[in-house]
Write a structure and sequence with these properties.
The structure is a single chain. By secondary structure, the chain is an alpha+beta fold. It contains one helix and five strands. The longest helix has 12 residues.
């Protein structure tokens, strides 16, 4: 299990526990369950990289303790 922190820079900071084999889409569903926002409206970024739903966290080399930027459509 790894723990990822997502910050939307509007005061909402979410800590999510998931597996490295989970996809980004699975992570968005976990974030949506905690924030109450629809998973389809969530965009995850790190610098200028937008993470795609079908690729796993391990493929993106997202590790324990990483911070991701949380945006809404």
């Amino acid at each position: 299990m790894i723990e990822i922190t997502c910050n939307d820079r509007l005061g909402k900071k979410v800590r999510i526990k998931c597996n490295p084999t989970d996809t980004v889409g699975d992570l968005k569903k976990l974030i949506a369950a905690q924030t109450g926002t629809a998973a389809e409206r969530i965009i995850l970024k790190k610098w200028y990289t937008i993470y795609k739903d079908q690729i796993t966290l391990g493929d993106y080399e997202i590790h324990d303790g990483m911070n991701l930027e949380l945006y809404y459509q």
